[in-house]
Specification:
binds nicotinamide-adenine-dinucleotide, 7-stranded parallel β-sheet, 258 residues, globular, 2 domains, alpha/beta, Rossmann fold, 7 strands
């Protein structure tokens, strides 16, 4: 894919899983990419691999829940790349627990990473995008942002908030040249899903394969979605041609292929 030559992107949570795949896909489409994550080692490694491929990549440590670190990220990435045209709010985290077992700390952490992080990073780049009259902000939400399921109420509430934020900001951004959209995948083959499967194994004594099958059956998914499929949807929303796509949710549920 090409089409993003001359554009600069920040991807949060870019050290592994969907974020790393999105960073690589944006760079292969021609963009300069700054990967940011709480875990610096991972983003440094991914950026180094990308540079070996001839792609332009930078790595920054940033906890998206910390307003100071987010401000520093926006400054450092602007310095490294020139300016920010694209923001992928991908950093996220999930837990599963029945309501009675969700601690306040757990609830707040899920909200902080998924929702507050999305708010802070968007706020850090929106004004400069508006000034240039061009910008793409893509929020990585989830099917949990539009549906509910048991034992994931904190994550579901957080991703519904991300979807609500996307829709409200799409209205606020109308006519500015900046778009806000979201991707809403079902279960994706990433370390986050591996952790969910490990929890099911621990709680039920089932094997890895049995736990995965139970997870997919409950979600109505024939298979795990691949990270690069989500990345491709993200890249599509960043293209020049996607300028009229604003406030949309792109759902990926794995039902398109056997
Ligand atoms: P992952 O756990 O594999 O990777 C998450 C990345 O986010 C890591 O690089 C981690 O360092 C980073 N991160 C976590 N907390 C952070 C923080 N406070 N500040 C900065 N970075 C932080 O996750 P993934 O599966 O690739 O998920 C990425 C996004 O996609 C998340 O928002 C997740 O909710 C969403 N999502 C995942 C799935 C799935 O099945 N894996 C499905 C739908 C949506």
């Amino acid at each position: 894919m090409s089409g993003l030559e001359g554009y600069n992107a920040i991807v949060t949570g870019g050290g592994r899983g969907i974020g790393a795949a999105a960073g690589i896909a944006l760079a292969r489409a021609g963009a300069k990419v700054s990967l940011a994550a709480r875990n610096e080692t991972q983003v440094v490694e991914i950026a180094a691999e990308m540079r070996k491929e001839g792609l332009e990549a930078f790595a920054f440590r940033c906890d998206v829940t910390d307003p100071h670190q987010v401000r520093d990220l926006a400054l450092s990435a602007s310095e490294a790349m020139g300016r920010i045209d694209i923001l992928i709010n991908n950093a996220g985290t999930a837990t599963s627990n029945p309501l009675s077992r969700i601690t306040l700390a757990e609830w707040q952490h899920i909200m902080d990473v998924n929702v507050t992080g999305t708010f802070l990073c968007s706020q850090a780049v929106f004004e400069q995008m508006k000034e240039r009259r061009w910008g793409r902000i893509v929020n990585v939400a989830s099917i949990a942002g539009i549906e509910g399921d048991k034992y994931i109420s904190a994550y579901t509430a957080a991703k519904h908030a991300v979807v609500g934020f996307t829709r409200a900001m799409a209205e606020e951004a109308k006519g500015t040249g900046v778009t806000f959209n979201a991707v809403c995948p079902g279960y994706v083959d990433t370390p986050l899903t591996d952790e969910t499967i490990a929890r099911i194994m621990h709680q039920t004594g089932r094997s890895w394969q049995e736990s995965l099958s139970a997870l997919l059956e409950r979600a109505g998914q024939p298979r795990l979605i691949r990270a690069h499929e989500v990345a491709d949807a993200v890249v599509e929303l960043c293209m020049e041609a996607a300028g009229h796509t604003n406030g949309e949710l792109v759902v990926l549920d794995g039902t398109d292929t056997p």
